[in-house]
Amino acid sequence: MLTFILKIIAIIQLILGIGYLVLPNQLLAAIGHSEVASDILYPFGMLAARFLVLGVVFWMISKQAANHGLLINAMIGIQILDLLVGIAYTINSNVDLTISAFPMFNAILIIVCLLIWHPNKILNKKLSS
């Protein structure tokens, strides 16, 4: 199951990376965000690089997930931060819940799945303690 989850995460990262690199304004519009100033596309390109690298790395480690707990922990950390940012921007009314709900749900789903099927059984150890 963990192999499948890591491949899904990889695909999500690759789609976001390609979108932010090739068609950032169209991706943002499809999500429901405002169009950004052209100078902001540069940091989106840098963001795309990270999505693309993470996508490739997660695809590669999916076959030997048990050996890559640190990378899985890193993704859990990324998703926790994504969730906290989404909550903060939604609470402060900077982003409407119609825009933030799906990414925040996605972050929660990834966090829970990675904790449940983590190769080091993080959640199982916490629940049995």
Strand-helix topology:
Elements: H1 2-22, H2 24-31, H3 41-61, H4 69-91, H5 97-116, H6 122-128
Average pLDDT over all residues: 93
Number of helices: 6
Proportion of residues in helical segments: over 70%
As residue ranges, the low-confidence spans are none
What is the terminal separation in angstroms? 24 Å
User: What structural category do the secondary elements indicate?
Assistant: mainly alpha
The largest pleated sheet is described as:
none
Quick summary:
The chain is mainly α. The chain is built from six helices and no strands.
Please describe what this structure looks like.
The protein is an all-alpha fold and 129 residues long. The protein has helices spanning 2-22, 24-31, 41-61, 69-91, 97-116, 122-128. Helix 1 runs antiparallel to helix 3 (41-61). The chain is globular. It starts with a helix and ends with a helix. The model has no long low-confidence stretch (mean pLDDT 93).
List keywords for this structure.
mainly alpha, 6 helices
